[in-house]
Amino acid sequence: MSTRNGVWQALDERLKLSDFTYPVPRHANTVAYSLGGISLIGFIVLIVSGILLAQYYDPVPQLANDSVRAITQGVHFAHPPRHPLLGSPGRDGHRAAAHVPHLHYRVV
User: What is the pLDDT of residues 47-72, one digit of tens each?
Assistant: First the structure.
């Protein structure tokens, strides 16, 4: 038994990593299917951030800077919509984007 195989077996025994090897349907192995999910996540983030900004942002030029400062300092959950790649949605989107190629190249 090689060292690499022994390490894998030890990790698999403790963490049950082999449970993550599952067959992927053929329709899920297309680029269009993968990009459709990514587009849907981006569209949902766009809608949620737009609703939040529509409630708190004042587009009048004299008041715009103050409204942005008020949003970043006082509104709960305002930081992720303003910076979607830094908050939880960005992290989850990154995880999804990292997982899509794994699904795409796995053939049933």
Answer: 988 888 888 888 888 888 888 888 77
Half-sphere exposure of 26 toward its Cβ, with a 13 Å CA cutoff? Answer: 0
Q: Whole-model pTM?
A: 0.44
DSSP the chain: --HHHHHHHHHHHHH-GGGG-----GGGGSHHHHHHHHHHHHHHHHHHHHHHHHHH---SHHHHHHHHHHHHHHSTT-HHHHSTTTSHHHHHHHHHHHHHHHHHT---
How far, in Å, CA of 85 to CA of 11, rounded? 32
From the list 56, 70, 66, 72, the residue with the least C-alpha distance to 80 is 72
Q: Which two tokens stand for residue 35?
A: 């990009």
Question: Which residues have C-beta within 8 Å of that of residue 16, sequence separation ≥ 6?
Answer: none
